[in-house]
Specification:
237 residues; mainly alpha; Ferritin; Ferritin-like domain-containing protein
């Protein structure tokens, strides 16, 4: 696995994952020294949002259908707003946003390129799945960073405006058996790549058995949320 993050050892923290729209008790997992420092957390969170915007913008240019352009533009606009809000937070509390994001550009660009499909619907599904899973993961990490984390939770907790993309995907899946099979296989590949990104956000690069036991409930919850997204699309997780 590629080592994507500086090896700093932050103070003990709590990682909390809450399902979208669920205001009940959130699962809490003590990650101690496994969470990254705040600059790493903010830098990657900001650059991920920029990547979603870039991928969606590419789709807007590629599609001739006006309704699809509108659906994509809504989601792209929301991703860009979230990026700018996190960038403003970096400037306020950490330092120069470009310097904070720069260490993650190469690796996250590679991840984004690897999850761009050969067809527009595959790339739409890529954004829907990867952004959903990683937003959930960074919402979980946010509880580790006090007031800064609470602000990130507010930003990432905003509506993603991907509902119209979900409807486009669902219409394709319902009407085209071949595309349903292709998208189902593509989704399974995306999950592995996305979990690697989430796993690489934790320190150290290799976890001991006790640490693996700590992180397992969070990744189990991520997969449960992913399964719900897949069910909503009419695909098996």
């Amino acid at each position: 696995m590629v080592n994507w993050f500086w090896r700093r050892r932050p103070p003990a923290r709590i990682l909390k994952l809450r399902a979208r729209g669920d205001l009940g008790d959130a699962m809490r997992v003590d990650f101690a020294e496994l969470a990254p420092d705040v600059a790493t957390f903010l830098g990657q969170a900001a650059y991920l949002q920029l990547g979603y915007f870039e991928t969606l913008s590419r789709l807007i240019r590629a599609t001739p259908d006006l309704a699809e352009k509108e659906a994509l533009s809504l989601a792209a606009g929301r991703a860009l707003r979230k990026h700018r809000q996190i960038v403003a937070l970096i400037a306020e509390r950490v330092g120069d946003p470009t310097e904070v994001m720069l260490p993650f550009r190469e690796q996250l660009d590679a991840f984004r390129r690897a999850t761009i499909g050969a067809r527009p619907r595959e790339t739409m599904l890529s954004v829907h799945i990867t952004a959903g899973m990683l937003d959930d993961f960074y919402l979980a990490l946010a509880s580790s960073y006090g007031s800064t984390g609470r602000r990130v939770s507010e930003i990432l907790g905003q509506a993603a405006d991907r509902e119209q993309i979900e409807r486009l995907l669902r219409a394709t899946i319902d009407s085209d058996d071949e595309m349903r099979s292709l998208l189902s296989m593509w989704a399974r590949r995306l999950v592995g790549d996305t979990l690697l990104v989430a796993r690489a956000a934790l320190t150290p690069a290799r976890l001991g058995l006790d640490d693996e036991k700590k992180v397992e409930p969070v990744f189990t919850a991520l997969m449960a949320a992913h399964a719900r997204r897949m069910d909503a699309l009419g695909l098996a997780a």
